[in-house]
Amino acid sequence: MSLVSSLTNVVAYIFMTYVILVTAVISNVFQIVAYLLMRPFSLTVYRKVVSFCQYLILSQLSFRFDWWGQSEITFYISDADRPFLGKETAVIVMNHRNSAEHLFCFAIAERLGLLRTFKAFCADYIKYVPTAGWSLSFNECIFLKRSYEKDRGIIVKQLEELHTYPGIFWLLFYCEGTRFTAERHQTSMEVARSKGLSELKHHLLPRTKGFKLCARVGRKY
């Protein structure tokens, strides 16, 4: 029975992977066409098309989180803040330890109806990754080189462009700027000791310059 169950799981995984790859390729084609033919004439229509294509891709990942992973999410939120959850544009600040966090974010955004317009600060190389990376690029995610001097202009420019975005969206921000590893943690704590900062056991030191810039520019809108 366990062998049959294992084979069934493998077949299901391969099938779902095939479906999401095909969906992503088709979505990229529509996004490219929209970029060339719609964006020059109507930015609003272009954004609606590429966000729908993004939803076709990310919703399948959210499905895996819920159905395949059989995961549940519990919200802890005050009564005062609850009416605003998913009802306004926001910067979501998270710690970054592994890839599962992306699925977690997608699942939350799906529950709140924000998966279509979900955006994030991403490492620059991701925009060159076929299918998923291209889709995020078309959907106006902000790609950074992890150097404040190089990224400052990019952050300001793209946040100003997002000011005209129709409707609400979430912008995901990983405060460490990279995922947790033992080697990076050791280096991060050496920096903490050299600056007289508290040492963290389970996280890297947050990169505050980019967040402060994001908050400062965001307040204008």
TrEMBL record:
<keyword id="KW-1133">Transmembrane helix</keyword>
<protein>
    <submittedName>
        <fullName>1-acyl-sn-glycerol-3-phosphate acyltransferase delta-like</fullName>
    </submittedName>
</protein>
<keyword id="KW-0472">Membrane</keyword>
<dbReference type="Pfam" id="PF01553">
    <property type="entry name" value="Acyltransferase"/>
</dbReference>
<dbReference type="InterPro" id="IPR002123">
    <property type="entry name" value="Plipid/glycerol_acylTrfase"/>
</dbReference>
<dbReference type="GO" id="GO:0012505">
    <property type="term" value="C:endomembrane system"/>
</dbReference>
<dbReference type="GO" id="GO:0003841">
    <property type="term" value="F:1-acylglycerol-3-phosphate O-acyltransferase activity"/>
</dbReference>
<feature type="domain" description="Phospholipid/glycerol acyltransferase">
    <location>
        <begin position="90"/>
        <end position="212"/>
    </location>
</feature>
<keyword id="KW-0812">Transmembrane</keyword>
<feature type="transmembrane region" description="Helical">
    <location>
        <begin position="12"/>
        <end position="38"/>
    </location>
</feature>
